[in-house]
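Structure tokens please, single chain.
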Amino acid sequence: MKEVKVGALALVAGTCFVLIVLNITSSKTGFGTYHDYYANIQDATGIFENSVVRVAGIEAGYIKSIELNDDKAKITFGIQKRLRVTQNSTLKVKTVGFLGEKYLDLSLGPIAPERLPEGSEIKVIEGAGFEGLTEDAAEIAVDVKEITQKIKEALKNENSDNVVKDIIADLQKTMQTVRKIAERNENKINEIIDNVGDVSASLAYELDGSQEGSLLYQVRDIGPTIQNLKKASEDIRAIVADVHAGKGTVGKLLRDEETIEQVNSTLKNVNQLVNRINNIEADLALYTGGNTDGGASTTFNVDLYPAPERFYRLGVVVNDFGPEVSETKRTTTTPGGGSPSTETREEVNEDAIKFDLQIARVYQRFVFRAGLIESTGGVGIDYLWNENGLRFSAEAFDFANDDGTNLRLYTDIKLWNIIYTRISFEDVLNDTRSATIFLGLRFTDEDLAALIGLMAN
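Here you go.
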């Protein structure tokens, strides 16, 4: 009986493991939300649904479906929302190795002013990968064959099977003719040689500075200038020698290997820092509203995205309600010996400035947060309902409060463009529960870039 129980337990565990694996492998790869695009290619051999889409060699999306569109294959795929796909983006079909799997390689291309709308077609560059190399090699082989045929035709004509041999024979006949002409005009050639000798003698006289009347004798006054140029050349040679020997500031900079390594290391660190700063994206949110108990609240948050799947939240909160409550006791003595009375009064620390400092992780449409919420420890979870900005959130914080943990439920609704409204229910687990209605602005990284460009103009 014990063996039967163990076997049944193993069967149930194996079935659960298979179901979990199938569920995971059929879902999206990576974190974050996705925008859908499509492309038409000539040949989809080796491409399957759920295959990855890479950007710069890194997984950035997945293939959702493949279907026949006339004589081409229409491939629909999802790309992470954080990536900016524009009209300059292109797609290639590539292969990992000679016998590896195929994948789609997305090149975002030069920066364009507008993001490509979701559901748009992306241009495909055919012939990439090993298949393109094979086709190019075949075309080169055809070209080589044509060139070989042309050479063969050039070396053979109707009158001779070896044109080069005929050319050499014609050249020999030409040389014999030239020899005969030289023999007939030997005296004239000798006269030309004598004239060349006379010209050489005249040139030697003009270049002799000791001969009065020669060209070099007449320009001898240029000597001091030549001496000055010679001295300047020697000074330049000395400076170059000092630099080459590592003397002086320039010499140490160019010759000292330690200095060169330090400069290169500094430039490399600066380049890495600039690249990291350029890759960070930021979202800003500013909300202000009123509470049903008569208090006001204003929040300002900055979300920094070093990667699409995680971000850090920095924020400031100013409100007239919340956990900042203190008690004041006052004792009153009645004249005439009566019993003293004690009065207890709660006071709210209005306009208290509180801070948010959280780290968040994005998983598909869920966002998990942990850290400081209004200057107390807490956790939060967000669910992105759709692409139009509808979001449901829950936060639990201020666990040490005597009245119990503050559980806050709220939802964000996009009204128009960057304008949002928020409905928040405060401290829903306690008797001090209340509601707050906010109106706010949310700016994405693209909105900030457009706003800064508009202000610069």
